[in-house]
Amino acid sequence: MRHHLVLRVVSKLLIPFIILYGLYVQFHGDFSPGGGFQAGVIVAAAIILYALIFGTERAKQVFKPQALMVLAPVGVMIFALVGYYAMAMGGAYLDYDWLAGDDTTGQHIGIITVEFGVGLTVTAVMTLIFLAYAGRTHEIDDDDW
Amino acid sequence: MELLIDIVLLAILGIIAVAILWTRHLFVATMLSGAYSLTSAALLVALDAVDVAFTEAAVGAGISTVLMLGTLTLTRRREKATNRRVSIGPLLLVIVTGALLIYGTVDMPAFGDPNAPALLHVVPEYLAGTRDDIQIPNIVTAILASYRGFDTLGETAVIFTAGVGVLLLLGRRREEDEEAGTRRPEREA
């Protein structure tokens, strides 16, 4: 889509705000609608928009598939490790009450950490699936549609 | 007013669904399915399920539409012509199934009914616990991340597994080709 000037300019303006909104949905999930999964798909949508406008190859240079392949399991591991940490502190698996001195703080820490793990995995997996698909498609002219 | 919005949105959904069935142009069908998802997202906002609407808009209207478009570039853009005569058997089956499903909803409690059985089991405990123990305003997050943390861990693992599956099927081969500097001919089934 090299010659679509309007699309390029508009998406260049929009993508930072989409990612910022994704981060808001991620870290404000305790107070407003949203959470890790929603934030993950919003950020992934921003990355996919970037790849659509500026080409898959350039997107792969910015968001390296090798790095995404590491981030995807790291997200699940953050979630699982929070559970084991709660066990190590004396509670049950994923019992956030034990993460801090008092129960409420523990719950806050647990929820925000776990949601961060979910967001990481969802962003990485969604982007990787798109890149895997996009890697198979060959460039086609706009007139072909 | 809300009833009117619901009726209009559901009517649009119906029209889009018929249009998807009608068109032979697969590009049009894909874009219409994106529009269907976007309308569903609006409907979910009307139902006060904003977080589900986020997901529907981002995944349904955004990511899956893009994946469908990517698939289209590998296949043809037009559906093969088939004769469109109405077959009575399948039509009857669909009508009976649909009627049964609608009949099943008659017994369901009204939308938002506070005395619905689903809301009397553990929900009061969750509501009180979120207010007193967890102390965050978003009860959905409290239930998903804390009360049902184990389920959410499982869901995250499912997403991860899905990603691994797609990469095993599609991702690896291409990279090996690029490293080798040659491209093996595509093995089409």
UniProtKB/TrEMBL annotation, chain A:
Please state every residue range assigned to the domain named Na+/H+ antiporter MnhB subunit-related protein: 6-127
* Compartments reported by the entry: Cell membrane
The membrane topology term of the UniProt record is: Multi-pass membrane protein
Q: What is a single Pfam family found in this protein's UniProt entry?
A: MnhB
Task: Write the record's keywords in alphabetical order, separated by commas.
Answer: Cell membrane, Membrane, Transmembrane, Transmembrane helix
Q: Which GO terms describe its cellular component?
A: plasma membrane
Q: Which InterPro entries match?
A: CPA3_antiporter_subunitB, MnhB
Question: So where does this one cross the membrane?
Answer: 5-24, 36-55, 67-88, 108-133
Q: Which family does it belong to?
A: Belongs to the CPA3 antiporters (TC 2.A.63) subunit B family.
What name does this protein carry?
Cation:proton antiporter
UniProtKB/TrEMBL annotation, chain B:
Give residue ranges for domain MrpA C-terminal/MbhE.
Answer: 126-179
Q: Report whether Membrane shows up as a keyword of the record.
A: yes
One Pfam entry name: MbhE
Q: Which residues cross the membrane?
A: 7-32, 52-74, 86-106, 152-170
The UniProt keywords, alphabetically, are: Cell membrane, Membrane, Transmembrane, Transmembrane helix, Transport
List cellular component terms (GO): plasma membrane
This protein's membrane topology, according to the annotation, is: Multi-pass membrane protein
| Annotated localization | Cell membrane
In this chain the MrpA C-terminal/MbhD domain maps to 12-77
What's the protein name?
A: Cation:proton antiporter
